Amino acid sequence: MADVTRRLFLRHLRGAPTSWVRHLAKGKVKHEGIGQSFWYRPLTAVLSEVPVDDRELPLLFHARTSDFADVTVQATVTYRISAPATAAERLDFSVDPRGGQWRAQPLDQVATLLAELAQQPALDLLARLPLTEALTAGIAPVREAVSAALGSDPRLTDTGVSVVSARVVAIRPEPDLERALQTPTREAVQQEADRATYARRARAVEQERAIAENELQNKIELARREQQLVEQHGANTQRQAELDAAAALVAAQAEAERSRVAAVVEAEADRLRAEARATAVRAIGLAEGEAEAAKLAAYRDLPPAVLQALALRELAGQLPQIGQLTVTPDVVTGLLNRLGR
Questions:
Q1: Which of 50, 53, 181, 202 could form a disulfide with 20 if both were Cys (CB 3.0 to 4.6 A apart)?
Q2: For residues 19 and 100, what is the distance between their CA atoms, to the nearest angstrom?
Q3: Whose CA is closest to 114, among 72, 66, 81?
């Protein structure tokens, strides 16, 4: 909308680059065009403002196909007012000179006109198509029909409105009917998914079988190698036992030989020791005999009194230690008798 400011009893209008403004005073055009800016008197001014930019008009309407199915058409029409002077004469684009607002709703009238013109060819075309064809291939024919109808309608030309483009976004049936139509496709997709699942499971089972076979082959190979290991271990143990037995036999033979040699050496040593002891005994005996003979030879030439004295001395040496001696006449008598004998 135009920007209107107040200065005492005057008003100043500043238009936009996308708005066409006409200023009439006493039936004469004072200002007209896009991007206008001027002063005016509110009491005598008649203002019209027409937007010339491209505008989008969304459309949503219902139609019926040849097989009596209700569908919803969603479309968008892009238009512009290409002849703003003609539009200002055909529609009420007048502006309040005091505030700058539209007095009516001219764009609603344009939207109603475009909606009615766009719906009619779409309804006619869909009424000749069955539901499945309308849903699968009906968007392009409906768009072409709507574009052709809007481009050639004289009422739009007389109003100064030009249609830039017409787009049909979607054609949809009722929710229940749409779900029913989607069921075969959903079932087909589900079946394909099931087949993919079954194929994946089959591949998984095949892979598991291959893995199990590989594991079994590995176990068999491990068992065979374990058997070889056990046999080799037994052979090694047997060989070790044989070697230990041979070593023990050699050790026993060596020990027996050592024992025999030791016994021989010990017997020889005992014999030598016995001979040495015998020799020593003989020598001692000979020495004692010679000493005893010499002693007897010495005693033979001694007088009896000396012999008795020696005998007493020898006897005294053999007697135990006497701490206290009591001499009685009987003891003296007996001793003297013994000495006298």
A1: 50
A2: 13
A3: 81
Which residues have a Cβ under 8 Å from the Cβ of 243 and sit 6 or more positions away?
Answer: none
Do 151 and 82 meet the contact criterion of CB atoms below 8 Å apart? no
- State the number of CA atoms in the 13 A half-sphere of 219 facing the CB: 6
Contact 48, 37 (CB under 8 A): no
- The mean pLDDT of 57-71, rounded to a whole number, is 88
Q: Is the dihedral of CA 153, 156, 162, 164 positive or negative?
A: negative
Collapsing DSSP states into helix, strand and coil, what is residue 42?
Answer: coil
pLDDT tens-digit series, residues 67-101: 888 888 999 999 999 999 999 888 888 888 888 88
Separation CA 201–CA 209 (nearest Å): 12
CA 142 to chain centre: 54
Residue 73 has a CB neighbour count (10 Å cut-off) of 24
Yes or no: say if 50 and 40 are a contact pair by the CB < 8 Å rule: no
Q: Are 23 and 40 in contact (CB under 8 A)?
A: yes
Which one, of 46, 52, 36, 55, lies nearest residue 84 by Cα?
52
Residue with token string 């007048």: 94
- Residue 320 is predicted with a pLDDT of 61
Q: What is the mean pLDDT of the chain?
A: 84
Burial of 233 (0-12, 13-18, 19+ CB in 10 A): exposed
Residues 6+ apart with CB under 8 A from 278: none
On the question of pLDDT at 326 being above 70, the answer is no
Per DSSP (E only), the strands in 52-180 are: 55-64, 70-81, 94-95, 161-173
pTM: 0.53
